[in-house]
Amino acid sequence: MNFKISQQLFKKNIRDALRSAGYFGIIDRRSGQTSFVRRLSLNQYYPRFHLYLEANQDYLNFSLHLDQKKVSYIGQRAHSGESGGPEVKQEAARIQSLFK
After folding, report:
1. What distance in Å separates the CA atoms of residue 46 and residue 69, rounded to the nearest whole number?
2. How far apart are CA 100 and CA 91, in angstroms?
3. DSSP H or E run through 36
4. What is the spatial distance between Cα 33 and Cα 47, in angstroms, rounded to a whole number?
5. What is the largest CA-CA distance in the chain?
6. Where are the domains of the chain?
7. Three-state SS for 66?
8. Can you tell me the mean pLDDT for 5-14?
9. Where would a tag sit more exposed on the chain, N or C end, judged by fewer CB atoms within 10 A?
10. Partners of 81 in the beta sheet?
11. Residue 96: helix, strand or coil by DSSP?
């Protein structure tokens, strides 16, 4: 699910703002790209919300999906993820409400 939030709504840097929302940064070892995740369980890595950001001059563009499990085939990047559905929509609404 994609959505955007005005840069003017952030009173602190985006990393700190997302940390206060329960997200922490991870770096993809292959691409070097930073993304953010929020685990749904304290003792398991999956399922988790996974968030990619792209900044432009006025807005932060968010791309959110729910990772259900780890990649199961060696050499593949595809995984069991949902980019829609009620859980993802509810989480997107939660994130947006934190920055209004």
Report:
1. 5
2. 15
3. strand 34-39
4. 21
5. 42
6. 2-98
7. strand
8. 83
9. C
10. 67
11. helix
Q: Tally the residues of the chain.
A: 100
Position 84: which residue type?
G
How does pLDDT run across 64-79, given as a tens digit for each residue? 999 987 765 555 555 5
Residue with tokens 């609404």, as numbered in its chain: 93
Q: Scanning the structure block, which residue is given the tokens 């369980």?
A: 41
Residue 10 has pLDDT above 60, yes or no: yes
Whose CA is closest to 7, among 78, 60, 74, 80?
A: 60
Using the structure block, give the residue that is written with the tokens 């994130």: 95
Give the 3-state secondary structure of residue 81: strand
> What's the token pair of residue 95?
């994130």
For residue 37, what pLDDT band results from cuts at 50, 70 and 90? very high
